[in-house]
Specification:
Shape: globular
Largest sheet: 4 strands, mixed
Order of helices and strands: EEHEHEHEHEEHHEHH
Radius of gyration: 17 Å
Distance between the termini: 29 Å
Number of helices: 8
CATH class: Alpha Beta
Number of strands: 8
CATH architecture: Alpha-Beta Complex
Structural class: alpha/beta
Length: 212
């Protein structure tokens, strides 16, 4: 709910997803009263939401998949505002164009900027292996799959610009939030979701260079 630019952080992810035809954003949160504002944002955006376990995020996701009858899903973290529509579309197209893959990811190897993750799963794969996520992988719900990657058919999206994983476009700390707000204040008219990846990387690198 922290403000990034002129809107709550999670609104950036929702806006990015709403800009991509054929994709339905679902806010998946806990049943805590403190998370009520997230549900209100979902209602305001006229998108679905699902509430489940606080501690067991894997169970929350599995129950959401069952509830909505979802066949394929992307994991989008609410603290990663710089969602890139072209990347996400490329990932979904790769998964849906054939039956050759169970998972599409750009995290193997880690080269994309930190916070521009693409993780797309066939829901049945996640459900079939859900029991393996208990108890150690209930929060970081995709880690078990990467630890056992040889069991799955994986398409690995390649980063075309070397390795920029040290560039942070994630909000884990107050410093991250301040840095991205500074970046946006210098580029107030950027259409982040639709901007070509090469352009946003170019502007991020220039911002980092001048900030130093």
């Amino acid at each position: 709910m922290r403000e990034l630019g002129e809107k709550p952080l999670i609104q950036w992810s929702i806006d990015g997803l709403k800009a991509l035809p054929g994709v339905t954003p679902i806010v998946v949160t806990s049943k805590r009263h403190v998370d009520d504002p997230l549900v209100e944002i979902a209602k305001k955006n006229a998108i679905p939401f699902f509430r489940g376990s606080l501690e067991n995020i894997a169970l929350r996701v599995r129950n959401c998949l069952d509830y909505y009858g979802i066949e394929n899903f992307a994991r989008i973290n609410g603290d990663c505002p710089f969602l890139n529509c072209a990347l996400l579309k490329e990932g979904f197209d790769r998964l849906l164009s054939s039956n050759d893959y169970d998972i599409v990811t750009n995290l193997i190897p880690r080269a994309f900027p930190y916070g521009m993750s693409i993780e797309i799963f066939r829901s049945q794969i996640f459900i079939d292996h859900y029991q393996n996520l208990i108890p150690d992988f209930q929060e970081h719900i995709t880690s078990w799959f990467y630890n056992n990657i040889e069991l799955f058919r994986v398409f690995r999206m390649q980063y075309p610009f070397g390795n920029d994983h040290e560039i942070r476009v994630v909000v884990d700390t107050q410093e991250d939030l301040e840095t991205l707000n500074q970046f946006l204040s210098q580029h107030p008219d950027l259409d982040i979701p639709k901007l070509p990846l090469s352009k946003i990387i170019e502007r991020l690198k220039y911002f980092i260079k001048t900030k130093r």
